[in-house]
Specification:
Strand content: 5-15%
Order of helices and strands: HHHHHHEHEEEH
CATH architecture of the largest domain: Orthogonal Bundle
Radius of gyration: 21 Å
Shape: elongated
InterPro entries: ATP_synth_OSCP/delta_N_sf, ATPase_OSCP/d_CS, ATPase_OSCP/dsu
CATH superfamily of the largest domain: N-terminal domain of the delta subunit of the F1F0-ATP synthase
Helix content: 55-70%
GO molecular function: proton-transporting ATP synthase activity, rotational mechanism
Family: Belongs to the ATPase delta chain family.
Subcellular location: Cell membrane; Membrane
Number of helices: 8
Structural class: alpha+beta
Number of domains: 2
Distance between the termini: 35 Å
Oligomer: single chain
Protein name: ATP synthase subunit delta
């Protein structure tokens, strides 16, 4: 997995720098997300894996499926990836691009898991506390999972704050078994 990150990084950086220079970061983010979704489709994986197709045919097929959502520079980027036999990197490139975009915009996406639905006021209080702690704009996605019993689990990239009752009970059981 780390190898994919390493191989994808220069492509991501080049795409991001180009998009930033042209003022098209949002458009590139959408293009890369779409291309990544197309490449991840099981039928497309099968077709793109066909050895009888040339790299040009694979690029043309991907560009045709993406349609008008991909501009000329995006088509050139997808063609380059195909020529270098790197189309499979598109999901990783898209993820890295969105991370660079979030860092540039000083924003972060937070996944919040709770045992029950929280009212909007409480979600906003938690978001405000995280804004202060992380020094970034926060985009919160909230889901429920009854198995955590109570509390909250917050995930933001590599940061995980597990304040769930399930985690506290697990720590208590571990301490008692030591």
């Amino acid at each position: 997995m780390a190898e994919l990150n390493t191989i994808a990084r220069p492509y991501t950086k080049a795409a991001f720098d180009f998009a930033l220079e042209k003022g098209e970061v949002d458009q590139w983010s959408k293009m890369l997300s779409l291309a990544a979704a197309v490449v991840n489709d099981s039928e497309m994986k099968r077709v793109l894996g066909t050895p009888s197709l040339s790299v040009e045919q694979k690029a043309d097929l991907l560009i045709a499926v993406c349609g008008k959502q991909v501009n000329e520079a995006g088509k050139n980027f997808l063609t380059l990836l195909s020529q270098n036999r790197r189309l499979a990197l598109l999901p990783e490139i898209s993820n890295q691009f969105n991370e660079l975009k979030a860092n540039h915009e000083k924003s972060i996406e937070i996944d919040m898991v709770t045992a029950y639905d929280l009212d909007a006021e409480l979600v906003e209080k938690l978001a405000q506390a995280l804004r202060t702690k992380l020094g970034r704009e926060i985009k919160v996605t909230s889901t429920t999972d009854k198995s955590i019993i109570g509390g909250v689990i917050i995930r933001a990239n590599d940061l995980v704050i597990d304040g769930s009752v399930r985690a506290k009970l697990a720590k208590l059981a571990e301490a008692m078994n030591s």
